[in-house]
Amino acid sequence: MSKPLEGIKIIDFTHVQAGPACTQMLAWFGADVIKVERPGAGDVTRSQLRDIPGVDALYFTMLNSNKRSLTLDTKTPEGKEILTKLIKESDVLVENFGPGALDRMGFTWEHIRELNPGMIVASVKGFSDGHHYEDLKVYENVAQCAGGAASTTGFDDGPPTVSAAALGDSNTGMHLAIGILTALRARDVTGKGQKVAVSMQDSVLNLCRVKLRDQQRLDRVGYLEEYPQYPHGKFSDVVPRGGNAGGGGQPGWVLKCKGWETDPNAYIYFTIQGHAWAPICRAIGKEEWIDDPAYMTAQARQDKIFDIFGTIEEWLKDKTKFEAVDILRKFDIPCSPVLTMKELANDPSLRASGTIVEVDHKERGKYLTVGSPIKFSDMKVEVKGSPLLGEHTDEILEQLGYNSQQIAALHEQRVV
Ligand code: COA
């Protein structure tokens, strides 16, 4: 079948990560995504953390595949005219400028709606409209601190810690994509566009939902039994950092395997699922614990959970993380090796499923990227290389009705 979002035209005014992650996904699913970039410079990530001089950085190529690139100075009258034409014939405009930038450009929501009542304007900001920090510019780690992730991540005796996962950026982009698809569905029914706004703080907080659960439990009972602070340590009146503790009802921890002394990733994550207690005991050769009242219930195990993890580590001492998981999987124990980026990049299963894909780029050659984590039975998502800066400018201007002399003049004046 053709791609489900074919026929949807998106003006992609996004940069860095949060916005581009959203529009990249919509491009994978068939939307015509036109990335609008400043002439000469483009998205700042084209030149950030470059590994090949003069060639678009991986930061850019991995977040902008399947898009077209239009260079346009939208602060010039001619640039505004081109943008106006684009707005009239597009379905969605996505942006993640600093607060107020689109308005200052002259493209307020009211004006865009006048130009095209069906237009969906989707924005990422650091904080939501009306928030007391709404004027702040925000990057990933700022959002992780603002959304509750940092105060609850790390170890009790260390500072607030950010995650390597892009909870503030790509996560917000994924929320925005859901918002855009919802607004498109609404437009199918009403014919009207609308404004869709997602803040990075809100998106992080949405993923920290269980920590808000814990705050309320702590307020009521004064302790959190699944945290390592229980029962021997102390709780204050705020949710503490729980280290590597399992966040739900199943205690878990990162455990050392053979070679941990020299390999910083020779670990597995081990979960003690309540009903898997007997298989766990069998797997680690501790059958005597199965019916021992001091061990047989989750409650009985709670105060010696780290001794139990210590015993499991003894068992793991002569097994690599892969050997350990191969044994534990036979006992139905939820676990995983701690995988490095190198191991993931070369994982045959991820290559076969299209989660890690090799893509061709006109200047860089082949590089790896993360393909669609969403798999469809009726669509194969094909990830293409990212566009060069302004690669599609002339083609897009022609489609808007500009002739070759007009296009040459726009280049001359550096409007495009
Ligand atoms: N032509 C002309 N001007 C352009 C342009 C174009 N094609 N594209 C952008 N600009 C202008 C904007 O209009 C703005 O001008 P103004 O401030 O004079 O009105 C200017 O470029 C700077 O934009 P801004 O987005 O504020 O860039 P910044 O580098 O100062 O800030 C961020 C970067 C990411 C901090 C900021 O964009 C932000 O907070 N965004 C919202 C949250 C977010 O998405 N964070 C990033 C997550 S990865």
UniProtKB/TrEMBL annotation:
GO terms for biological process: oxalate catabolic process. InterPro entries: CoA-transferase_III_domain, CoA-Trfase_fam_III, CoA-Trfase_III_dom3_sf, CoA-Trfase_III_dom_1_sf, Formyl_CoA_transfer. GO terms for molecular function: formyl-CoA transferase activity. Substrate binds at residues 248-250. Its EC number is 2.8.3.16. It is an enzyme of class 2 (transferase). Keywords: Transferase. Gene3D superfamilies: Crotonobetainyl-coa:carnitine coa-transferase, domain 1, formyl-coa transferase, domain 3. CoA binds at residues 15-18, 38, 72-75, 96-98, 104, 137-140. It catalyses: formyl-CoA + oxalate = oxalyl-CoA + formate. Belongs to the CoA-transferase III family. Frc subfamily. Involved in the catabolism of oxalate and in the adapatation to low pH via the induction of the oxalate-dependent acid tolerance response (ATR). Catalyzes the transfer of the CoA moiety from formyl-CoA to oxalate. Homodimer. This is Formyl-CoA:oxalate CoA-transferase. The gene is frc.
